[in-house]
Amino acid sequence: MTGEAVARRIAARVREGKLPCVEAFALAEELGIPPAEVAAIAEAEGYRIGWCQLGLFGGRGKEAPAVAAVEVPLPLREQIQAHLEDGHLPCPSAWGIARRLGVERIEVGRAADALGVRISRCLLGCFS
């Protein structure tokens, strides 16, 4: 599929001028291409990624809403701490933790935030 065809598929999924994170991953899966490639084409078309599945940034040009301090369950805390790299939790590791513990990705993101841990190495290339 050409970049132009991918761009049309992206445009069909854009909301409020942004391509939702979940849609970028779904499209990458459908097309059999890396998620970062979908994000790069979206960016070239003038779209930003929105509604991060880890809760790092939202839509409407705003950051994700602040979450009240949460008590982080011990298994989740241990998993986050075990996967830190240079004090940061890589996005792929956060996804893996969610899968292994059977929790939503946003729960891992909120727990990391509550622990003062920043997410790194976004799978879509939004940040390093």
Detailed description of the structure:
The structure is a single chain. By secondary structure, the chain is mainly alpha-helical. The chain folds into two domains: 3-50; 74-120. The chain is 47% helix and 9% strand. The chain has six helices and four strands. It has helices at residues 3-11, 21-31, 35-44, 74-82, 91-101, 105-114, and strands at residues 18-20, 48-50, 88-90, 118-120. The protein has a two-stranded parallel ribbon with strand order 1-2. Helix 2 packs across helix 3 and helix 5 (91-101) packs across helix 6 (105-114). The protein is elongated. It starts with a helix and ends in an 8-residue tail after the last strand.
Question: What labels would you give this structure?
Answer:
128 residues, mainly alpha, 2 domains, two-stranded parallel ribbon, two-stranded parallel sheet, 6 helices, 47% helix, elongated
Give a nutshell description of this structure.
The protein has 128 residues and is mainly α.
Low-confidence segments, given as residue ranges, are none
Summarize the helix and strand pattern as letters.
Answer: HEHHEHEHHE
- How is the largest sheet built, in terms of strand order? 1-2
Shape, per Cα inertia axes: elongated
How many separate helices?
6
Outline the fold blueprint:
Layout: H1 3-11, E1 18-20, H2 21-31, H3 35-44, E2 48-50, H4 74-82, E3 88-90, H5 91-101, H6 105-114, E4 118-120
Parallel strand pairs: 1-2, 3-4
Helix pairs in contact: 2-3, 4-5, 5-6
